[in-house]
Amino acid sequence: MIAPENSANLVLIRNEEEREENKMTKIYTDYFLDEEDFDKNHFHYKKLSIPDGVEAKPLAVPPVLKPDKVSGNDVWYTIESIESKVQLLPGKATKTWGYNAPILGKTMVLKRGQHVHVKLKNSLPELTTYHWHGMEVPGPITDGGCHAPVYPGEEKEIEFTVNQPAALTWLHAHPCPSTAAQVWMGLAMGVVVTDDQEAKLPIPKNYGVDEFPVILQDRTYHKDNQLDYRADYDAMGILGETPLINGTIRPYIDVTTQKVRLLFLGGSNRREWRLHFDDDIVMTQIAGDDSFLPHPVKMTKIMVTPGERLQVVVDFSGYHEGDVVNLYTDDFKLIEFRIHNFEKDDSVIPDTLFEPKLPEVDPDMPVRKVTMDEHNMMNNKQFSMQRIDMKQKVGQAEYWDVTNTNTKEHGMIHPFHIHGTHFTVVSRNGHEPFPNEYGYKDTIPVRPGETVRLRVEFPLLGVFMYHCHIIEHEDAGMMAQIEIFDPDHPKKYHLMDMETLTKAFAEEKGIKPEDVWMPGMDTEGCGMDDATTGASQK
Q1: Half-sphere exposure (CA, 13 Å, Cβ side) for 133?
Q2: Tens digits of per-residue pLDDT, 500-515?
Q3: I need a surface site. Which of 130, 221, 272, 315 has the fewest CB within 10 A?
Q4: Which residue stretches of 225-328 are H helix?
Q5: Considering the entire predicted model, what is its pTM?
Q6: CATH class of the structural domain 368-485
């Protein structure tokens, strides 16, 4: 006979198992976030449209970047930032920037355990940086934030060891305060991490055939099809009028297999992407930012905010050769999926995909409080390049309560991002995270008035940024810095200052420092005070 207390425990275990089973079998039919908070309801929202004369074309699939050299477990790459032109619209080609490619870049594929050597080569007319968004690398130099400029015509070499699970991460420019302008020009590329666990999973993984990166961006094109960031600038975040998917306008995908894996990357400066298919086809999400999910989540609608990555598997078994299935954001058609003849695929996605390690948090450790205020402050302060806002011991897990202090009436969703690590989501306003937030993440959307609790542990030393990933908000000052330290081996960091960067931009442009226009700093209330000089850069 079972003892009463054991009987109660058994009931609890069974209830928990039933809840987990329900989560895995349930099909979710909403975006989880509140509609009233969507970007389309706030601050100069622009609807998408396709310019006249643009014909449908195959989705551009970025080629895989080939290494310069491979020796055992070491691999060498060169990443070059270049100016180029791309035929995006009828008429003149558009001037763009890219990594080893005219726009965006080639896909870098790394394997867990590799030691990676990278030569960063800047062939642009101005300084830039190379930020490894989602990668666990030391900071601040290797991480590639604003303290690691590479000047025009120069090269810099970095190296790091890949020690994280399979995921889609990405590389993008991060020079303060011109991150948004340089990403707008095209400086963003996918960095795929693979591991042995992913290799065992029965999921599509033939790149360019049944596995496609989908880099979601939007742009506005001006006279002669050119980009004009200054003309489009909006301190609340820029919304482009034309969708640009992998650098393709009006793309389609030829579906030649029953199941297709889509790796979504929220590469817009501000726009949220609310995705759904014709006929409410079920998308099975298998991965988030920095890992696979513990269990697959089935949904008909999925939202990608700036900086986030989501991987889904779509099963087209209900369609036949010649059918066309459309992917939408809201009511706008983004991508056509043109169905061709395919062989039957009876593979089943396992119920368990990944087991995240949840480090223990000392219950006596105070909870860190981080606030995102207005559109240009963290903890009521604008970013200062030489100010350390927080310190945390390396390898020590802590709780962070991240609050969006905006009101429902005038606020917007802020996607909160931390450099140099991943985190797990503990709760939203004291309630469970969304079903697709169980796994490793580095970017999390926070609604107006909401507090999200994160479990954060940094594996490597350095100075790292944390900020809103609406890039104009970041550039305007909604960013701060944390030093990750080892008490037994203290380090001193020589951090870049704004005056040095301003002088460099001025010299590159052939103008006086006081004439340098830096997005985010020309806007009233968006100046940044340098901690050393006390000068306000407006």
Answers
A1: 28
A2: 988 888 888 888 888 8
A3: 315
A4: 229-232
A5: 0.92
A6: mainly beta
